[in-house]
Amino acid sequence: GAGVSxxxxxxxxxxxxxxALRCDPISGHVSLFWYQQALGQGPEFxxxxxxxxxxxxxxxxxxxxxxxRPEGSVSTLKIQRTQQExxxxxxxxxxxxxxxxxxxxxxxxxxxxx
Amino acid sequence: xxxxNQSPQSMFIQEGEDVSMNCTSSSIFNTWLWYKQExxxxxxxxxxxxxxxxxxxxxxxxxxxxxxxKDSFLNISASIPSDVGIYFCAGxxxxxxxxxxxxxxxxxxxxxx
Lengths: 114, 113
Hints:
heterodimer, A: mainly beta, seven-stranded mixed beta sheet, 11 strands, B: mainly beta, five-stranded antiparallel beta sheet
């Protein structure tokens, strides 16, 4: 399909494990965003990439969270030493750089930390 | 983190009724957006508003950008069962050039046939 895809769709981790969440943006979309959506809440901004450059990581909740986009396309959000409070849906969105109001969201990865 | 204040939290209505929901903030936003999210999916953009006082429609949906730039409203007319979902407002604050979104807590809409 032509939309944003994310994998895995569901991830169960034991507390303390490391996880990696993948985002494939829409081809040609320079801008890529990660958001965290806790149960019953709206999404909250985590980080922003323009091509391979991470221009804003102010929303990452701790230094256990790390995101990369080495070739300016696929992005990976990594969470080290997962904690129960990390349980949430992680959403990826992409847009054209001059159409940032029109962010297209992927279906998200639901992370459950036991 | 900061979120917009969205109300009501949930609505239970009969098919054919009109729906209104709103979103307020203590700070100014330069862009207001309304999204709909269905179970297991990411949010989908419904309407975008770019100027204070702007009124924009998309089919049965109408949204307004408040004059103070601190609020926005979404109306859905003649609701149908497929309108069921969670509606989120979102704003982009001034001074950001790349679309960092701040979301409301969402309004859960249930439509009874």
